[in-house]
Amino acid sequence: MASRRAGRRGGAAARRAQRGSSNVFSVFEQSQIQEFKEAFSCIDQNRDGIITKVDLKETYWQLGKMNVSNEELEEMLKEGKGPINFTVFLMLFGEKLNGTDPEESILNAFKVFDPAGTGTVNKDEFKQLLLTQADKFSPEEVEQMFAVTPIDVSGNIDYKSLCYIITHGDEKED
Q: Which range is most confident: 24-28, 30-34, 38-42?
């Protein structure tokens, strides 16, 4: 009976993992996806479609690293924010390879332009920076960004919300 319950819990975990973003497949070429699938299969030791702590531990053991702590393994698994199926695995690699900075890094960059610590930056000043500094944005790119950017009635950007949108996507209903 207990094993049937465990099996059901595993099935629910697999269903939750399947909810990951499927458009991650458009980030990679078919040959890259196949290589990631092979890597996933090597890590998924028990072939249940989900990478677990036991799978990671066994993979490290096969690679000759036998002293990986449970804490290290748990930290790796936390990056998936839930069960790690192939789609989540691909999404994690997509984030790493496409250079999306962690939300905290982006927030710290905005804080440079917010010495008062209000959580906002002026839209016009920020637009000027985007158009003239470092990796310059085109006017069209700035307008595209502002289309999904939370801006208050005073013309200030809520950069905490913007950082969330940058790292997690725009959650607005269409």
A: 38-42
